[in-house]
Specification:
CATH architecture: Alpha-Beta Barrel
Mean pLDDT: 96
Oligomer: single chain
Order of helices and strands: EHEHEHEHEHHEHEHEHHHH
CATH topology: TIM Barrel
Structural class: alpha/beta
Amino acid sequence: MMVTWHGVFPAITTQFRHDQSLDLAATSRHLNAMLEAGIHGVVALGTVGENTALEYHEKLEVIRELKQTAKGRIPVLTGVAEYTTALASRFARDAEKAGVEGLMVLPAMVYKSDERETLTHFRTIAQSTGLPIMIYNNPVSYGVDLVPRAFVELAGQPNIVAIKESSEDVRRITDLRNAVGNRFVLFGGVDDLILESVALGAEGWISGLVNAFPHENRELWDLATSGQWQKALELYRWYTPLLHLDTKVKLVQYIKLAMQETGLGTELTRAPRLPIVGAEREQVLGIIRHAIATRPIISTAAVQ
């Protein structure tokens, strides 16, 4: 199965009202703002989208809203993060009916499966749907690690087409290429390793901070992928203190706070996540506000 996925795919936030109910209109406005900045695709209901904090029916409401907003301009993918393989397969089928163009599938939540169990989980979900699938490998957050040789085992499943590599070991990009060649589209999933990932062959970037800085995010991607490494490095050095926020336990709160500071959303999250307070809040605000104060001038036309 062939896909044309490439470039910057925001792991989009889910916006809430003060009573913690879904704010679909705000989520739609946010996607439109990122579309104007030239994103190439979007992933709903990932970690940053607070997947596991939403009810089943709410997840389907979110992806239907994003599909309607995108109007076919970009591929809309959704995260699949359920507690059992059966429920994940059911959600995959329902997401397909809702019209998404692909799935980003996580290991089963809570239980830390071994390699055999993890491969079976992914294969079973893939066999439940006709959609193309991206495997999300994030052992740092989810405690399950698929090493490059494991993807040799998944290469025979035709609709598993891509990997979001978030192990924080950038050597994995090269190891994956050596293990499976060009069988899978490789996405970098760690914001503060993206320049290194592109240099090693990543074809896409699933980003968190793009939610707050979409124009700078797109510019960095364009510079790196067009070989303008010195300009890319300069922009990356400005951006990196912000990108570090994507690697923290409270990345959702930090990214949403950055969105609030840049006028692209609110910091409201769904409990148990709460807004950060005290010294922690001041430290993160200091990083965000310094970045805004020193924001580089971004070209009006994207590099082709």
